[in-house]
From TrEMBL:
<dbReference type="Pfam" id="PF24981">
    <property type="entry name" value="Beta-prop_ATRN-LZTR1"/>
</dbReference>
<dbReference type="InterPro" id="IPR011705">
    <property type="entry name" value="BACK"/>
</dbReference>
<protein>
    <submittedName>
        <fullName>Kelch like family member 10</fullName>
    </submittedName>
</protein>
<keyword id="KW-0880">Kelch repeat</keyword>
<feature type="domain" description="BACK">
    <location>
        <begin position="78"/>
        <end position="183"/>
    </location>
</feature>
<keyword id="KW-0677">Repeat</keyword>
<dbReference type="InterPro" id="IPR056737">
    <property type="entry name" value="Beta-prop_ATRN-MKLN-like"/>
</dbReference>
<dbReference type="InterPro" id="IPR017096">
    <property type="entry name" value="BTB-kelch_protein"/>
</dbReference>
<dbReference type="InterPro" id="IPR015915">
    <property type="entry name" value="Kelch-typ_b-propeller"/>
</dbReference>
<dbReference type="Pfam" id="PF07707">
    <property type="entry name" value="BACK"/>
</dbReference>
<dbReference type="InterPro" id="IPR006652">
    <property type="entry name" value="Kelch_1"/>
</dbReference>
Amino acid sequence: MWTILHALKLKYNKNTEEYNKFKHLTNSLDLVIYSLYLCHSDNSNIFDLTMEVHQFNVKSLEQTCFEVLKDHLCPENCIGLWQLTNACYIPIFLQLKNEAFHFICENFEEVSLCEEFLQLAVQELADILGQDDLTVTQESTVYQSVLRWINHMPEERQGAIATLLPKVRLGLMDKSYITDNVLNNDVVKTNPESHLLVSKTLKVMSKPSLLCSESGINNTLFCRRLPNAVLLMFRLFPKNIEAFDDRTNSWITVHTNPSLKNPMTNLRFYSTVFLEEYLYIVGGGLGWTDPFNRVWRYNLVTHTWQEMSPMQDSRRSVSVTVLKGCIYAMGGCRNLTSLRTAERYQPDINQWTFIASMNEGRISASSTTLNNKIYICGGRSNFRILNTAEYYNPDTNQWTLITPMGTPRCGLGVVAYMGHIFAVGGNDGSIDLRSAETYDPGTNTWYNVPEMVHTHSYFGIAVMNKQIFVVSCSTENRIAECYDYAKNTWSVVFSAIFALHLISTGLVEVLINLTGSHLSLDMCKTILATMTSLGAEREEVGSVRTAEPGDTGVLFGILPQIRYS
């Protein structure tokens, strides 16, 4: 790109306005490249360069500048970039504006402690605080950020409490906290409008029936903010879709009784994967033999099923994952024999094609993606439990074995997390496992990590909010626990008896990049609107049956928050 700009500069005669513009542009580019090389790039330089590049309609460099600015978003600079793009009407800046605003909302707790936060205008702050998708662990964080902003310039900003306090979801706070820290706060007490709002909120909290009749009280004060992600579980038996909110440690039924097509009603040993706005069911069968090559997908918006193009091979207990908009199905079992074959599904043309076969046949293995590669670990090769692992490079269509795991594992969970591959739980051929280990691609080495609190095999696993979540549905209890990388510990986040009707432990682990999500707004609303409703159906206690590995399915994955753009 640098060469192209310098060549364009030579088209113009020296001392002309066009020549001087190109000379300035190439000098700006030189400065940015030098700054990036030294790893201390100035976002304002890149921003100015983007403005200049736009004048000359150099689209590829304009896109490159956008990617650099987006990649350099951090709590310390996101507000400044958002404010800069607010004043510009270049299309790519509108995109950057949305990215910066989303970053602010998703990382609000960190952003609110930075210097730029204190420079926000009152209406800018009100716009941020009013977002349903503002990510905070507890609402008191929002209130404390308002006080911090006001106390930065108390004389000029005290009156802004009347604008900002209604943006705080007071109804989500503890009553004692409101009484001690809000109602009796000097800034609130000196503003009659704000003091009255808090008093009425406390009154409604004591008697919820007043919510509709109490004047001056907005329902928004009592509406939960949308989580930035939820764990999504889909089960054929009982036929429902549930979501787990880690902020409240509770399961919420978001859809019941999805219509099923024969022979899906008796399907077993299938696998599930989440792509765009669809849940895909891949393979499976009605018993131990005669597996299907059939594929169905479920539309989360219309709640309808559609049968898709079949796989090239019939497979049950197959490993599935998503990479670059395609579904990969690897291994599995046919007529009690483990399969080495693998294939790729392209949804745009509704077609499956074979890719290179794995080095080893694998049944009930687990897979994930990292650095544009597919990693598959463990499983069973006929009657031998495997500790082997390998990765697939789609650019070369080649599988490569890596260092074996320390423990053989079948029915394990595998997920990419913090730049590593984590292999968790499973069964070693005799017992279910609590152990876990992590693989460093840079050193081709496995390391042990702390054991889980409970044993888990044939379960769901996903990354959410910078933690690994594991949900087991193969015992009489539903148990969810999570691993925190910073603390290097596992902890139980949910445990309860629940109705288990032939529930499988098949899984899909999906982490969708919120900044690049292709999910429709309608689909997100379908799932997440339920998360904020006051009367959401919670987990019920019912009859219990222990599931066998592969019994009719569970989809377990991550659904991102509603993305406004």
